[in-house]
Amino acid sequence: MADAVFTQLVDRFYPALYRFALSLARSEADACDLTQQTFYVWATKGHALRETEKAKSWLFTTLYREFLRGRRRGERMTALETVPETEVEQATLAPEALSSMDADVVMSALQDVDEGFRAPLTLFYIEELSYQEIADVLEIPIGTVMSRLSRGKTQLRARLTVAKQGAASGGVVKFEDFKGKAGHG
Amino acid sequence: MDNEEAKFILRAYRANGADAADPAFSAALEQAKRDPELGRWFEREQAFDKSVANKVRAFTPPANLRDAILAGGKVSVRPRLERSQRSWWRQPGWAALAASVALVVGIGISWPKFSRANEVKRFGEFAMNDMLHAPNHDAHGPGMGQLAALVSDATRKLSGGLPIEFEALRANGCRTLRFGGHDVLEVCFERGGVEYHVYVMKRTGKTHAGEVPHFHETSDGAGSVVWSDEKHLYALVSAKGPDALKAIL
Predict the structure, then answer these.
(1) Is the pLDDT of residue B60 over 80?
(2) Of B51, B59, B133, which has the smallest distance from its Cβ to A98's Cβ?
(3) A-contacting residues of B 2-61, CB under 8 Å?
(4) Which pLDDT tens digit goes with each residue over A59-106?
């Protein structure tokens, strides 16, 4: 019975958790590790929670904590509260232009967003959690989530605009401070 | 509320409509209906969000991740169900106290070994659970015959390691799983009427077991053993338990 519950829980949430992990860790192998580790922690500690909705928040919270725990010492999160003016000016991409872009390019742009914005932004686009739940998962105030979503979207748009322009001119898109593209098979 | 405030709120409104019943958005949504300019902005914002969400959703996890999660997780769930059958000194409270003392004493001098031992233990559990729960072990492609013959050879002891060409086996369709972000190859074989499964992954800093085999036996008599050589980490499992494993190591 416990195995069946665990299997249901895995089936329900592992794709979304993997996407969150991929955005945070920026590598497929690390995303797999984080997702596996999250369910491993669940299996050893968390499965007393019976309500699915609580389990959902618990899993995302645990994955985020595992990510922060595993980060190399000295590598600090860039939780910028402002977006540079140049990026605001670049954030002009129309929704129609976005729909023709490759998922790989969009994920790379998302992975390039400053981490302080990226975590709430990815959770928002995974669409599993409300902004209140995102605040709980990331352990930040609701107002901060709203603010980071707003600024994060501006930054994402700017990166996508640059990517679109790069593709249109036949050039290679190179995001600043990009640390590794996700392998996706 | 002016339009800038409404935009600030509406940027947190999910494009799949999941927030439709949330009263925190009501006033801003009403304003977007009344104000054409804000309405157009909101429509485009939602179209953008929907498109990004679709692109993110297009990223599917690697095929073997689910199996790996289930393999690692189920083994961990089972012991907790058996709590009432444990001796008092094996109850979680006492075990935790004992573990804490041992940890405090040992952590300063043996953290790398502890971490490595944990990975080795998990690898054994992973292999055991895959043997017990995976629906099939038949995904063996061409080129597997030589290795199957090697491990089935009754005169060959396995503890010295195996001449495995990891990349070639994987490319040839050897059943491949994922453990801790690494590929794991699995080969099934039989010796003396006993079925065995050997799991092989490339050795990393965290995942080498040393030359001394680490045995583990489950309550229902199945056994696993983990060891490593210069290149690979191995887990050998059998439903017949440790004696069957020792016989071919």
Answers:
(1) yes
(2) B51
(3) 8-9, 11-12, 14-16, 18-19, 22, 44, 47-53, 55-61
(4) 999 999 989 887 754 455 554 545 566 666 556 677 777 878 888 899
Q: Which residues of B touch A95 (CB under 8 A)?
A: 44, 47-48, 50-51
Quick: pLDDT tens for B2-24: 889 999 999 999 999 899 889 99
Average predicted confidence (pLDDT) for chain A:
79
CB A61 within 8 A of CB A54: no
Q: Is the pLDDT of residue A121 over 60?
A: yes
What residue type is assigned to position A63 of the chain?
L
Pick the residue of B1, B42, B69, B123 with the most A CBs within 10 A to test the interface with A by mutation. B69
Tell me the three-class secondary structure of chain B, residue by residue. Answer: CCHHHHHHHHCCCCCCCCCCCCHHHHHHHHHHHHCHHHHHHHHHHHHHHHHHHHHHHCCCCCCCHHHHHHHHHHHHHHHHHCHHHCCHHHCHHHHHHHHHHHHHHHHHHHHHHHHHHHHHHHHHHHHHHHHHHCCCCCCCCCCCHHHHHHHHCCCCCCCCCCCCCHHHHHHCCCEEEEECCEEEEEEEEEECCEEEEEEEEECCCCCCCCCCCEEEECCCCCEEEEEECCCEEEEEEECCCHHHHHHHC
B53, closest residue in chain A (CA to CA): A125
Q: Which of residues 62-121 of A touch B (CB under 8 A)?
A: 93-96, 98-99, 101, 103, 106-107, 110
pLDDT(B1) > 90: no
